[in-house]
Write a structure and sequence with these properties.
Elements lengths: L3 E8 L2 E10 L4 E9 L8 E7 L8 H5 L2 H8 L2 E5 L30 H4 L4 H16 L2 E11 L1 H12 L7 E4 L9 H11 L3 H4 L4 H7 L7 E6 L5 H5 L1 H10 L6 E6 L6 H19 L2
Parallel strand pairs: 4-5, 4-6, 6-7, 7-8, 8-9
Antiparallel strand pairs: 1-2, 2-3, 3-5
Helix pairs in contact: 2-11, 8-10
Length: 283
């Protein structure tokens, strides 16, 4: 499927480009943003896929995180995807901020109401990955995942299930144990149905218990003033699980004093995260 260029803006010697395409997985038109550093005019470059949180689109990270300056320093591309299908004919799809539009949760829905469009896991892992590989100057052997909140959940779960495809992952304030929190239970129950065993395939804490043990290098940051820290994120359970399973040295989980859940928090630590990815992608 060919990409349609919607906008192009020069940025730190490279370009931020918005593309649109018809998605087979989601059965609708989708948009995503790409930052291509200046090096991409001469060779294929490594890339970080960024997955955003609830209510967000492909624009929030690109416009608010201050990421392009840091990516340009390292010659890395950034690929910012949308968070759900758009303009689809599903009753009530836009009625709630935490379900439906802007809230795809990076799962492949199995419930009839949602299954025809809400396949964000396969969209990110298969379709978008293939389109980028085929049509953009990205080195598909050197890509990684980063995300925030719902997108942090997406980045970590996708990485754990596809470690041969992605070199590393990092997350800002991820929903680490969605089978146990309101946001996760609402989304997983709606998209996947009442079989709670099926939910575990999209839960970082549960996946850590089941995936084949292999070396990882993961960075997670969360603010101590994040209003969702205890009720929705369950970072304490993630930290406990990594320690119990012997991943303590491979998962760096940092509590940042006084920071909240916003892009002010992300922009403060984005340089650390991009440096984390650069060291691995350019090794």
């Amino acid at each position: 499927m060919s990409l349609k260029e919607i906008a192009r803006n020069k940025c730190y010697g490279g370009y931020v480009i918005k593309y649109e395409h018809q998605s087979k997985e989601l059965d609708c038109k989708m948009k995503f943003n790409v930052f291509l550093p200046k090096e991409s005019t001469e060779k294929k470059v490594p890339a970080i896929y960024f997955l955003a949180g609830l209510t967000c689109s492909e624009d929030n990270f690109i416009q608010k995180a201050g990421a392009m300056r840091e990516a340009a320093k390292h010659g890395l591309a950034l690929i910012a995807a949308d968070t759900s299908p758009r303009d689809v004919d599903i009753q009530g799809v836009s009625d709630s901020w935490d379900l439906g539009s802007g809230a795809g949760f990076y799962v492949d829905a199995t419930e009839k109401k949602w299954a025809g469009h809400f396949r964000m896991y396969s969209y990110i892992v298969k379709e978008l990955f293939a389109i980028v590989q085929e049509q953009l100057p990205i080195d598909s052997t050197r890509v990684s995942l980063m995300g925030h909140s719902m997108g942090g959940h997406g980045a970590l779960t996708i990485f754990l299930k596809n470690q041969s495809q992605y070199k590393t992952a990092s997350a800002f304030a991820p929903i680490a144990h969605p089978t146990q929190c309101h946001w996760g239970q609402n989304a997983l129950g709606s998209y996947l149905g009442t079989d709670k065993e099926s939910w575990k395939a999209y839960d970082t804490v549960e996946l850590l218990k089941s995936v084949q043990k292999q070396p990882m290098n993961i960075l997670v940051d969360v603010g101590t003033n994040d209003s969702f820290l205890k009720s929705e994120l369950y970072i304490d359970e993630l930290e406990k699980t990594t320690q119990e399973l012997g991943y303590g040295k491979e998962w760096t989980i940092r509590y940042q004093d006084g920071y909240d859940h916003s892009y002010f928090f992300i922009s403060t630590f984005i340089a650390d995260h991009i440096e984390h990815h650069a060291k691995i992608l350019k090794a």
